[in-house]
Amino acid sequence: MKKLLLAGVMLAALTQTAAARDIVVALSSDLRSNDPGVNRDGNTDAIMMHILEGLVGYTEDGAVKPLLAKSVSMSDDALTYTFTLRDDVTFHNGDKMTADDVVWSMNRYMDADSKWRCLPDFDGSRVVKLTGVEKVDDATVTMTIAEPSAVFLGLMARPECGFTGIISPKSVGEDGSFVAPIGTGPFKWDEWKKGEYVHLAKNDAYVSPPNDGEPDGTVGAKNPLADGVKFMVVPDASTVKAGIQSGALDLAEVSPDLMPEFEDRDDSKLIVAVNNGKNLFYMQTRDPVLSNPGVRRAMAMALDLPQLVAAASNGTGTPNCSMIATNSIYYSETQQECLPYDIEAAKKGLQDAGYNGEPISIIANRRGNVPSYPAAIIAQAMMQQAGLNVQIEVLDYATQVERRRSGNYQVISQSVSPRLDPALMMSFYVGDKDENTSLMWENPEAVELLDAAYRETDQEMRQQIFDDFHTLMLEDMPGLFMYDMVDIWAATASLEGSPVWQGNPRVWEVSVD
């Protein structure tokens, strides 16, 4: 009764909010911090994406293009990047953005006191060592790195880094403390009522980067068509459903099991959007049973992947056994290759590998927005047909994550959030398990290919690296990639535009009556 009463109060509040001409978006949790790239999570990234812009950004297919920069050039030795800035960019307070602001923002990020979560990616601890940021003139900035890197620009564009957004120095008080983000995006910071909502106002002075009139990641058409956007904290699924169907909410992510609630209705609609995240089965290649690649390959051949994906995704997913997403510029014909579904070949493979019915445990969680549990149950049934003794262990998500990080598992049914450059996705799985027990694959050839993917800047040569990686992965089968992550969103019927990108609400170029 108390839960129903609370939902009713929340719905009433939403109804009052919806009378305004804002777009109202439901998020499952509150903003963590409005300081770019500090104390962030997915919901925080979604809000900040509308306020912040970096020198470069990602396209829909994972390419990196100029955003606040008009152009980017790289020196012959691949160590110096020259950013020529657009001359039509102003901050939300009306000040013109110049090279001084870029240098100030980058120096602030690189200061350890800023607590920027991406500092290790740029200080040489992990990926890139940024050795210099210099102003050439008011419209030109150079950045220098210690070694050639194919992912330097991609790292700058990452949502987890606050998009390395360029902010006005006036975002910081006289005492050096952060006040509020004064960015350049299509919406600007307005109000934060903690635990309830974040409101962003329309940036009337916003000028989109050069584009073809269509949204494209974070770099295409970005005009704010609504007066503002209100991100409401609505963790309760029943309140979300009622809010969308009543028109009090305009947009919200919903779990796949709620899809029938929004189908064939006049007041709402479903939006199914694929992102670059992955649904897969991790395999512990140091496990006594699974250390044999013949067993791992047999497990893969026992899966009728189209049937498994259709069932686990409620018909929304498309099979993809590649680490690279289907909408990536690097998704080639080679990436489309999979081991065939062949029960008899799986049985023979197990016999040749000396498998003798040893138990294999798949760890799953029951979170409603990921297919961890249904995928595990379906895979169990399919693998048992080939003679595999597969069991399911259900854990809460936090415990499952801890088991993966510690390496204490045989198989884990897991979903991994988007990483738009394939090298960044590879690094989540590949490396020395003695140094990082959470990694999945330590084959020396795979590690060598990962290193090459980080260094090589030529797109054609990187394509060959990723194709070689996929071919090797099919031979070694350290994990079973099933399909790209699918986001299910419900929207009010009058919402127009493309309001979802990479799992985030994206409400520029979006309108609602």
TrEMBL record:
- UniProt-listed Pfam families: SBP_bac_5
Record's signal peptide: 1-20
Give the GO cellular component terms, alphabetically: ATP-binding cassette (ABC) transporter complex; outer membrane-bounded periplasmic space
Subcellular localization, as worded in the UniProt entry: Periplasm
GO biological process annotation, one example: peptide transport
Q: Which UniProt keywords apply?
A: Signal
In its UniProt record, a GO molecular function of this protein is: peptide transmembrane transporter activity
> Does the keyword Signal belong to this entry?
yes
Q: What is this protein called?
A: Peptide ABC transporter substrate-binding protein
